């Protein structure tokens, strides 16, 4: 999905993408086996979280789980107040 949106933004044409989020969820919850435990201690989720001010107050949120060379490392902007943004593709 992200790849299709990126190509659409860069090239201007559309993409047809078929997704099954239910199957993805099943794969994530049932088929991924934990790896061997190493010597690295888990220090909490802070490495995957960020904070910023928003129209809704101080917002603590998860960073995108997807990254690629030259891609963004954070969301472009915080969420706005419900109904403040016009509906449409960006």
Extended strand count? 2
Average pLDDT over all residues: 83
- Quaternary class: single chain
- End-to-end distance, in Å? 15 Å
Query: What general outline do the C-alpha atoms trace?
Result: extended
Total count of helical runs of at least 4 residues: 2
- Helix and strand pattern: HHEE
Radius of gyration: 17 Å
The neighbouring-strand order within the major sheet is 1-2
Q: What structural category do the secondary elements indicate?
A: alpha+beta
Strand percentage lies at 5-15%
| Amount of helix | 10-25%
Q: Report on the biggest sheet.
A: 2 strands, antiparallel
Unreliable stretches? none
Please, could you describe this protein's structure?
- The chain is α+β, with helices and mostly antiparallel strands and 90 residues long.
- It has a domain of 29 residues.
- The chain contains 2 helices and 2 strands; from the N terminus they run H-H-E-E.
- It has a two-stranded antiparallel ribbon with strand order 1-2.
- The protein starts with a helix and ends in a 28-residue tail after the last strand.
- The model has no long low-confidence stretch (mean pLDDT 83).
